[in-house]
Amino acid sequence: MSNVLEIINLYKEFGEGDTKVQALKDVSLEIKKGQFVLIVGSSGSGKSTLLNMIGLLDKPTSGHVWIDGNETSELDDNQVSLFRNKKLGFIFQFSNLLSDLSILENTMLPRKIAKNTENLLSEATELLKIMGLEEHLDKLPSKISGGQLQRAAIARGLINNPSIVLADEPTGNLDSETAKTIVQLMKTMAKRFNQTFVVVTHDRDQFGEVDRIITITDGRAFESNRTKMEVTVK
Q1: Each residue's pLDDT tens digit, 130-172
Q2: Is residue 105 a contact partner of residue 159, using CB atoms and an 8 Å limit?
Q3: Whole-prediction pTM value?
Q4: What is the CATH classification number for the domain harbouring 39?
Q5: Is 166 inside any structural domain?
Q6: 156 inside domain
Q7: Per-residue pLDDT tens digits for 168-216
Q8: Of 16, 25, 56, 188, which has the highest C-beta tally within 10 A?
Q9: Separation CA 74–CA 58 (nearest Å)
Q10: Virtual torsion, Cα 214, 23, 53, 79, nearest 10 deg
């Protein structure tokens, strides 16, 4: 099983002089294709900063982020945008769907930006059907529930067949029962498509058994004992 992500001696600092804060301190880790990984830690520990580094939403102060065999720290802004759209999928705490586009149009958008539209309509429709949204394809985001919005966000995150799906507190805005459904759905998609998920969460227990747990404490990464993730794929 090959590494889809390698982080080497990663540091991230904010501010200067007396106000300088080290958000990440010499973080190194590897994640293999198809793994479902949690990044956990208290507020301010650096877990969201780490996710931003992996997602190329911010640049490290020093160190290296390799994604799918590509070293990303030397990419310019235009190259980063293209690489991010092709290689990474995102799921946020709030779905961040565009309000004036239908659920189907939102799902197709990353592929349209990548100008990869072959079979796009049929593939997006099928993905949304897997998510249980076949009756909501033409609805605007304002017309469906929060749980349904997150289902659509998962579909949008998967549509480009990315190397990694990054999820930042994907259940943080949901009630407990809906959150369980979303967690199970992400796990099912991970197994069904051999898709790598890296999930930042403050609620480790909500996710049950996963492949790996990485704890961030004061900007440093520590790995918990690996646990087997068992999920039924329909």
Answers
A1: 999 999 999 999 999 989 999 999 999 999 999 999 999 888 8
A2: no
A3: 0.88
A4: 3.40.50.300
A5: yes
A6: no
A7: 988 887 888 888 999 999 999 999 899 999 999 888 888 888 999 998 8
A8: 56
A9: 12
A10: -170
